[in-house]
Amino acid sequence: MKTLFTFIICCFSFAVFAQKRGEVIIVKDPLVDSLIEKRIALSKKAAPATGHRSGAIVSQMGFRVQVFYGSDRRKTFNEQARFKSAYPKLNTYITYKEPNYYLRVGDFRTRLEAQRLMNELRSTFPTLFIFREKINAPRL
């Protein structure tokens, strides 16, 4: 009886190893490749009217100043427009973490740079905080 069970287990184990290697066929829309190429071209293309630099965006850890936060989306975008009218060269970033929207500005390598902007903005924007997060590295 033991030999019968051993024989059956051996037969099943050979069946497990008898699988053939298959072929993987990737089916995708050709527009995916064109979108990837367009994204690469846009990241390398210089945009002199907007003041962006050419080349790929380099991310690193740095600092941003939080100018506004609230649960009203329209108010957040209004604050962004107000800030952009006063400081058009600084980048603004709106993030949403339930239930609030956060408006953060700047891409500062050091906390001292962020502190300088915060001191300058203190009279205009009442709630200011400095956050360490991943930034788009500014050109040196």
TrEMBL record:
<dbReference type="InterPro" id="IPR036680">
    <property type="entry name" value="SPOR-like_sf"/>
</dbReference>
<dbReference type="Pfam" id="PF05036">
    <property type="entry name" value="SPOR"/>
</dbReference>
<dbReference type="GO" id="GO:0042834">
    <property type="term" value="F:peptidoglycan binding"/>
</dbReference>
<dbReference type="InterPro" id="IPR007730">
    <property type="entry name" value="SPOR-like_dom"/>
</dbReference>
<feature type="signal peptide">
    <location>
        <begin position="1"/>
        <end position="18"/>
    </location>
</feature>
<protein>
    <submittedName>
        <fullName>Sporulation related protein</fullName>
    </submittedName>
</protein>
<feature type="domain" description="SPOR">
    <location>
        <begin position="57"/>
        <end position="135"/>
    </location>
</feature>
<keyword id="KW-0732">Signal</keyword>
